[in-house]
């Protein structure tokens, strides 16, 4: 599955009042793993910031004056998100602004014409009803480092939201089975298995403490996500 974690910064809180997008940040995931591909653009909004919005983003009209307009990057942006599932915190806000930008361009349609959307704010409200579920609150609750978030920035927030989303939706974004430790490699031995002329096959012996570490890891995943599929497997062989 291809997913795009997305965030925007704007000149104000209401697109209906003519506010515009000034920054777009996207992070690509494939099968819940970051690929290293991102999309990040600052945009000239052709209008002033509302009171307070400039302080939140740290951006200025002087900085944005020589940046492209949304129309200039719309095609590239739509190509990047095409066919993906968008992961957005408070999706109605970002989609409202992006659709308003697209409405200014003939024949571009809406974001949902090209993508599906998962709203992490709604996910958080289902999991933590009655609690604060802002991005900062979720970082504290889920142990995600947001120490670099002094100001709101679209790409930085998308990167932080990536970690929050993976933790929020099971904590199994990167379990760590893809790499072998030196102890595991050292414990592996090759034995000859003769079935006709079949080549030898590897047998791996679990090192001391590895079974306990594995069980602890599964228990932590179950505690964070509410369930762990590995623990539900019948490994008795019966």
Question: What would your notes on this structure say?
Answer:
This protein has 238 residues and is of the alpha/beta class. It has one domain (2-168): Ribonuclease H-like superfamily/Ribonuclease H (Nucleotidyltransferase, domain 5), CATH 3.30.420. It has ten helices and seven strands. Strand 2 (21-30) and strand 3 form a beta hairpin. The protein starts with a strand and ends in a 6-residue tail after the last helix.
Features:
alpha/beta; 238 residues; 38% helix; five-stranded mixed β-sheet; two-stranded antiparallel ribbon; 19% strand; disordered C terminus; Nucleotidyltransferase, domain 5; 10 helices
Write a concise synopsis of the structure shown.
Helices cover 38% and strands 19% of the residues. With 238 residues, the protein is of the alpha/beta class.
Q: How many domains make up the coordinates?
A: 1
How many runs of DSSP E, i.e. beta strands? 7
Strand content: 15-25%
Distance between the termini: 34 Å
Question: Mean pLDDT, nearest integer?
Answer: 81
CATH superfamily grouping:
Ribonuclease H-like superfamily/Ribonuclease H
